[in-house]
Amino acid sequence: MTTQMDPTLIAFGANLPAPDGSGPLTTCQAALVALRRVQNLRFVSVSRWYRTEPIPRRPGQPDFCNGVARFETDIDPERLLMELHDVERRFGRTRSTPNAARTIDLDLIAIGSLVREATAPITPHPRMHERRFVLEPLCDVAANWIHPILGQSAASLRNSLAAANSQRIALWSD
Q1: What is the pLDDT of residue 158?
Q2: Nearest 5°: CA angle at 109, between 150 and 127?
Q3: DSSP letters of 103-135?
Q4: Which H/E stretch holds residue 14?
């Protein structure tokens, strides 16, 4: 456990109905409520919700609802990852093949400037800088956050990727 509250960035994604029939946006919002109940995980802000096409695109796979929430915490990274996996299980997440459709996906994007490359959870998330569906909402809550390995702000990473990435992304609307 650290002695200070570190800014913690968590990405949300969903493109299948939850077991109760809730759609992706409702599921992401409910997962956010569940995370706000985790002891020593203090909610700061949440991005707008985005509709993004799956990468890679698979026939018949629906668009994702994506967002990023900013918290502060002194929870150790292993316990935080367990909390994220617990919320995923409660919302019907099953792990099958990579890039499969899912009821909810919670990814630990970063804990302040912490770098962990050998053991789970790896931080910052090793592919976050390649994912527009993460960078776009991340900029809503932490545009000035500096990637501790790449030395660039979230906004700079997003701007570089947006110019080269044709992924369709728009604000979520039902």
Answers
A1: 93
A2: 55
A3: S-EEEEEEETT--B-SSSSPBS-TTGGG-HHHH
A4: strand 6-14
Q: Which residues of 105-136 are buried (b: 16+ CB within 10 A; e: fewer)?
A: bbbbbbbbeeeeeeeebebbbeebbebbbbbb
Mean pLDDT, rounded, for 22-45: 95
- The more confident residue out of 84 and 61 is 84
What superfamily does domain 6-166 belong to in CATH? 7,8-Dihydro-6-hydroxymethylpterin-pyrophosphokinase HPPK (3.30.70.560)
**For all residues of the chain together, what is the average pLDDT?**
89
Exposed, middle or buried by CB within 10 Å (0-12, 13-18, 19+), for 61? Answer: middle
